[in-house]
Amino acid sequence: MSVYTRVGRARPSGADRVELAAWYLMRLTGLGLFVLALSHFLITHVLYDPANQTAEWIATHRWANDLWRYVDGTLLVLVVFHSFVGVRTVLQDYIGGRLRIVLVILLAIGGVVLAGLGLWAVASAAAPPP
Amino acid sequence: MTLPRPSQSATLKLTYRGGEGMLAWAFHRIAGVAIWAFILLHVIDIWLSQVNAQLYDDVLQVYASPPGRVGEMLLGAALLYHALNGLRIIVMDFWPALTRFHKQFWIASWVVFVVVGLPVAYDILKPIWGG
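^ Those are the sequences you sent over. The predicted structure of the assembly is below.
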């Protein structure tokens, strides 16, 4: 049964389990991002200023504590999933046929590569000297 | 209020071409795609911070320049709008009965947007005039 509201995309019928999972995951990751993405923006643009967050600052301050690496890694995974699945929805609305399939595959590859680059940076950044 | 249960395609049409919700939807989509584009840039710059620190610091100076700060402010506005409207969508998707208050939620989200957004925008922009 599809739920009719004026606001969100209608919940897919349970027949297509992947689409139904995507519908729920967009909302679940959205809730996580409401907290993580907004606080990330507040920390990096209000509490600190971009002018001061050099590569050295990241190593010696931001990622000196492993807890922040986990927070940033979680934010990264949520935002890549949410934004790439969101763009897939946009593609599905405007593009059809074979081009859509090609673009969605490229998008999926791009999302995995981007998440990989980001996770590698978070995990491998050199710890500051003790 | 009894509405005939719409077919799946009619549901999509109403969702996507509805009256007052249309504006909320259009802003949500434009902001979402803009944030996605910034995420591409932003994850790559964080990756750069580990493979080419000098280039990363140069990119950072672009972010901190006056045009960069205007971009930052627009990014923050897109993020805040998308977050507030997204919450509005989630609330009504999971508690459809609350849909009757969708206009009040829409107004409330703009009140929060302005009250939270203006001080943040001021804080981001003030180094431009030496604040």
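Chain A touches chain B through 48 residues (CB under 8 Å). Chain A has a mean pLDDT of 90.

Shout if you want it in another format.
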